[in-house]
């Protein structure tokens, strides 16, 4: 199936079928400022949901993929932006491998782009015993504006004594970002969850994804929460809360970054941060997502232990029909506690959003509360 991406298209939803009974559902949001490339894309992998790549990732795109070496076989199912779908089959011997050569092009006329990470969810990589190695590509490697970059990816058995499954279906995202905007390494894992949160609020994930989230937040009495202002997937959260967030975030709370699975813990808070009842939802509440990859564990008496937590605020000008991000994603710290509250005589598992303060940002001073951050952006 040929996908034609056109300027000024707001949302494109494409269902692609490669073989009977095996299909993928792709959800696209389209930025009218981006020159999307026409691409043939036939996907062969188990069903999953995917929110479109960011504007940055569409500027750099794959122009060619081919098998370079190895005794295994490969089917190039397709590619769009720097997402690549392939089916690889190794031989039944310990040293079997496949090496792909991938060429990308930076279409920007103003900015160099740099490689950030390889990303995929568990649904997008169906054989963990076949691992990969990047050859000729490392984090911070640049693709100058208007130029090409070619690198290799080698696939081989991780455990050579276990060769019961010879096939790997994968969709892997080779993320390139404007070189000067490359995030800190701690931000890499949480960025996928942030992108998905915006899609949830704006009903891109599902036609009622925002209401699904709000309805679950309102059920606080039956879900081990003090009130309806927050929800999370941290330790101690109810099964229903964790399942709902898992479904809405579509795998982005357990992102694989460069071959390492990184669990992401989220707390979502709704509250009036700008003292303006004309912004936010119908009650004037902004939506803030707090994200961390910290283990959130502490000693029995460590009452003041903190975790690095990233916070991003969204607001609305039409009573919650559409949501936009305020400022950027800000790094800070929050006190580790138990989900039920309290910092003493427990080993943590959660964090207290009320204690969150900025720390380590280039564009805002340390020690600012989330309310002060929002006020500074007016």
How would you summarize what this structure contains?
The chain is mainly β. 13% of the residues lie in helices and 40% in strands.
Question: If you had to describe this structure to a student in words, what would you say it looks like?
Answer:
The chain has 378 residues and is mainly β. The chain is 13% helix and 40% strand. The protein is built from 5 helices and 23 strands. The strands form 5 sheets. Strands 7, 8, 10, 12, 14, 16 and 17 form a 7-stranded antiparallel beta sheet that branches. Strands 15, 18, 19, 20, 21, 22 and 23 form a 7-stranded antiparallel beta sheet that branches. The chain has a 4-stranded antiparallel beta sheet with strand order 6-9-13-11. A hairpin with a 2-residue loop joins strand 7 and strand 8. Helix 3 runs antiparallel to helix 4. The longest helix has 17 residues. The N and C termini lie far apart (46 Å).
Helices and strands in order:
Layout: E1 2-3, E2 11-19, E3 22-29, E4 39-40, E5 49-51, H1 55-59, E6 60-70, E7 73-80, E8 83-89, E9 97-106, E10 113-120, E11 130-135, E12 142-143, E13 148-157, E14 167-178, H2 185-201, H3 209-218, E15 230-232, H4 239-249, E16 254-257, E17 260-263, E18 265-271, E19 286-292, E20 306-315, E21 324-337, E22 350-351, E23 357-358, H5 370-376
Parallel strand pairs: 3-5
Antiparallel strand pairs: 1-4, 2-3, 6-9, 7-8, 8-14, 9-13, 10-12, 10-14, 10-16, 11-13, 15-18, 16-17, 18-19, 19-20, 20-21, 21-22, 21-23
